[in-house]
Amino acid sequence: MRSDDQARILELGELCTQEDPPLCNASCPFHVDLRGVCGAAAAGDFKKGRALLEQGLSLPRMMARLCEAPCRDACKYREIGDPIQTRQIADACMRFGAETKTRTFLPKRTQQALILGGGLSGLLATVELAKKGFRVHMLHSSETPAGSLEPLIPDVLPQEAMDGDLKQLQKLPVVFERVDPEKMDPQLYLDNGEYQAIFISDDQYRVLAERGQKIESDPKLRQSEIPNVFCSGQEALQPSFLGEAFRAKQAAISMDRFMQGVKMDSGRESEGPLPTKLYTNLEGIVPRPRVEPAGNQYTEEEAIEEAARCLNCQCLECTKACAFMQHYKKYPKTFIKEFHNTLNFTLANRMHNIVINSCAECGQCKVICPNDCDMKEVTECSRRIMIGDDKMPPSAHEFALLDMQFSNGEEFFTVRHQPGHAESKYVFFPGCQLAATAPDSLRAAYEDLANRLEGGVGLILGCCGAIGEWAQRVELFKEQLKKITAAWEELGKPEFITACPTCYHIFQTFTEIPVTGIWQVMCQIGLPETAQKGTGILSIHDSCGARNYKEVQDCVRELASRMGYEVEEPKFSGSETPCCGFGGLTAFANREVGTEMAAFAADRCQHRSLTYCANCRDRFAALDRPTVHLLELLYGEHELRSTGISLRRKNRISVRTAMLKELWKEEIMVAEPNFKLIIPDKVKAIMEDRMILESDLIQLFQKAEDDNSFILDVETGYLMASHRIGNVTFWAVFTKTEDGYVLENAYSYRMLAKEF
Amino acid sequence: MSTETRDQFYGSVDPKGRYVCQKCNVPLVKTPVQLLYLHAGFPVELPACPVCGQVLISEDLALGRVLHVEKALEDK
Q1: Which of A16, A130, A179, A557 is at a distance of 20 to 30 A from A59, taking alpha carbons?
Q2: pLDDT in tens, A651-677
Q3: ipTM of this predicted complex?
Q4: Does domain A20-100+279-307 have CATH number 3.40.50.1260?
Q5: B67 Cβ under 8 Å from any chain A Cβ
């Protein structure tokens, strides 16, 4: 159901923690972007660091001197060494960073707030409220508004730090007034109508508490029992600069809302320290000790050096292993947001259709993610929604789906007991892509299995339906499974032996057919006589089909080792293996990303790669990356080149025809055209690029001959002809020979041209 | 071959005698044609045989504007 898929997409989005704050930010009650501050400082950009601090704090210079820095206590670096000296780096940013000039427009407010008492909380509440446009009257009985901070000046708190912070009050409607201590009682101001809200600073709270006057307040809103009086409550008695500052900020927010007559408690859930699920991988990080200042504070160089130790905590684990995510420079959370918007709110162009069709649905990210976020499932849900909404671009998967139907159609689909057997204990299901790319490996493997296994080894040639599953054509996929299951039943329910990891996965997951891999069988019955006696190192490239099947991965390694090879494990191997770009039909919907995936997967391999999926082998070879398929090691190697779409079709037909003829003594009539079609290599490359099959053009010429629908291009002297097959119109540009045609060019399009 | 845009057509190609239909042995001429894709239709003028009606879409047009419009309609 659409709504289920949609809900699931959002649910999966919640699992990606990349946008969760780092520990420093999460532990800070003000949520100062300390990761950003350290990043800026490390780059020597103290101005940017200062701007970030000013965004989060209303008294940044003072806080950079006084804060107890829970960010440093929470710092991820603590797991491997000294935490980052965040407060000192912040202080350096405030000292060395130039001020960012911002123009703020103050709302004019008529209400006036009274701040009773100085010190950090009194000053902070004053600044917060004044910046919101309120008139503020601050009364202090201490010598200066600094109150309890006075003894800290200048050693702990330099005068210039305080002056710098208070400079922002210059043009604001604030009046500081020193009064006698007896004038500091809130009771005096409750009913005079001059002040709409009163804040008792922590300094003053402590004075009142000593006199036995203890005022309780709400621990979040900081509102006392007297509605217009705000204070820290008993927490004021526990000394902490950060606590004082934060409580004053909470009170100021409440007072603002109180004076404006709006709800005080809405939308304040994220105030204060928060939990975070952001995962950060510390693997490979060599800890460095913290930088000790030569003087009593960091110099610019020292601050830069210390800030450079910051881990810049991010997750991005899956993106490190996935060429699709790297191509778009995004991580699951951003993809999911964009997919969701495309699927639900797009009015104009659906920019992300192609992105949805570029994920390989290989399941790698889920294995790597510490939180099991799964782009495969996101993509599956998204594609189903697109199809249901009739928004799936027809060109994305049609070629691959037609290829699947070809594999399960009359020209290839085959079900047989072993020659001379009326029963099958086993049936070999090599998979459509092995037949397409390595027909002689298929045949050699079949003959070997049939020779060495007792009880009859049948043969089924066809496609498991994975292409339909990747495209999320649910009904079409079910049809293929039904067809294979019926064939399995027809043969008396033998055990499947497949040579394709994806078929293995599909049958394991979606059918009751008992399935094993040729890899496991070889491990059991031993290597064939034709197996190589190799030396040297092969880099193993597991298949995404085998991602969740350790038994398959282990057997492949075992076989390579029995043949004498040493196996190298590249980065991201086994269950973390990246897809070659065929998975999810990426190569069909977005060739560029598909090729990047193949290159990424191949380039992890330091030596010639050992593959056991026909597609991985073919796609690596297409990029000239040295590779060999396991069956080649067992039954003989082929040259290193990609097969191409037309040959893939031909190979399937010819291996079937030859096997039926030579093993089953069945004569299959393959209709040959009554003309010769010569396709020069340069035109073959064009056809490959435009996904035009030789068989499409043979149909075109047959039709053109039937109705003589040739067109002469007088300018070039070439002939032209066209033919619509299914949803595509094909054109051929050619010259005629005595017994056929020499192709000069071919192209196609999907639009239908109709005369008025 | 010239391509010019007219008000009532999205595009117009005048073959000016470049193509000859072999079946009917007559030159293709500029003919009003409807291009259809995904519930959308565009009136254009393309070379077509005045006798049998066979329409010609050249490689330039197929890989240029036709492909562009196909992609745009697929992402609508």
Answers
A1: A179
A2: 999 999 999 999 999 998 888 899 999
A3: 0.93
A4: no
A5: yes
